[in-house]
Amino acid sequence: MAATRLLPKPLHSFLPPIPTSQFSTPLFHSPQRTRPLHHRSRSLFSTNAKKKNPWLDPFDDGEDPDMEYGTLFADGKQDEDPVPPENPDNPYGFLKFPSGFNVELAGLQSKIRGDVRRCCCVVSGGVYENLLFFPVVQLIRDRYPGVQVDVLTSPRGKQTYEINKNVRWATAYDPDDELIEPMEYTDMIGVLKNRYYDMILSTKLAGLGHAAFLFMSTARDRASYVYPNVNAAGAGLLLSETFTAPSLNLSEGGYNMYDEMTEWLGRPKRNVPRQPVTPLKVSISKKLREYVEAKYAKAGVEKGKYVVIHGIESDSIASMRSKGDTDSLLPVQVWAEIAKEIRGLKPVFVIPHEKEREDLEEAVGEDSSILFITTPGQLAALIDDSAGVIATNTAAVQLANARGKRCIALFSSEIKGRLFVPDPEAKNCVIISSKTGKLIDVDTEAIKDAVRSFESFDNSYVLV
């Protein structure tokens, strides 16, 4: 008897019968025919909006103009998360579980609005650059109520957030370090992934390498500055939003160096008007005030009866100058001439390193008041208790403007002065610039005339 031949069964024997009446069009049809008419015409009549990257989602045609959002998809800003009641028996108030420990549920309207519950900011630079980032942090807090803002920056930049109450965690990780160890790199990626960020912002000019670092954080929105040249190739594929830097040194933009980022963060969306950028503000804790008060009292000065002098020439990294202005320090001899013109108030010289003390005592005398201060928090507390500030383009100028103190700012050129201190009259700041483009050639006579104004200056109306 011949063996029976095994034949393959037809496909319809494995699948249930599919009624053809449910399909108004054939199953296999070209996408061009099945696509509605308004989808095809949208690309022809597009506005001047920024084009979306087709590599991120090739099937995303943008927002549907026929979609109407009702009560299900709530407009406006996000709602703050409810706070658990405080437990009087617990010294910490209530127990906060780590992110991802319990199942977290979010409403559909939260997804539609693009709510941001946790935001991470990768800030490039030192004290000065992080200090100018404070208005951006405030903008994020105002735009997304209840958001938790964390910062990733250099060890020097981390010290700045001692005077910022809007930042939850500040982590020391220098994004500008080109020789980062692989173990530290992978560990930081794991830290960012475990915090479950909704949005990550970066002020470091990104190429493909830094964009990959932000992409591996698994944040939903990834926005960063990119190089203004070919080094930015490939970065846009891994980022949700890019800002092309005006130059290779972002700090050259001065006070408004983050204009492109604030323009995107404060954009109007879903019945929310444009969010304005607030001025720079700093907060000083009571513990920090007491520590600095004891420090300057030991130096022999009283509260409100001294002038802070900052910007002494030094090679220390604690000089707190901007990366956008390399010529922003004056030698000791120039400061000694300026200090002689101060009447009625005592000059307090701030040095960034103890090795400068001996040269300074030689120039101004051993009985002068010299304070060794390296952190921006201590400098802010010292300025807040003073009658005014005389400084070059260092963090002392911005801290004096933030606390409403009278300031005499010395710049190497008039252009630098307008960039770093816009609208100086409203900030009670006097700008004196050099006509040669070098800070050492600044007009000392103009400085002496401005210093004499401290004698008649009334501190009773200074904002604190």
TrEMBL record:
Protein species of origin: Iris pallida (Sweet iris)
Gene3D superfamilies: Glycogen Phosphorylase B (3.40.50.2000)
GO biological process: one example: photosynthetic electron transport in photosystem I
Source organism phylogeny: Eukaryota, Viridiplantae, Streptophyta, Embryophyta, Tracheophyta
Cellular compartments per GO CC: chloroplast; NAD(P)H dehydrogenase complex (plastoquinone)
Name of protein: Photosynthetic NDH subunit of subcomplex B 1, chloroplastic
InterPro entries: PNSB1 (IPR044983)
SUPFAM superfamilies per the UniProt record, alphabetical: UDP-Glycosyltransferase/glycogen phosphorylase
Domain of life of the native organism: Eukaryota
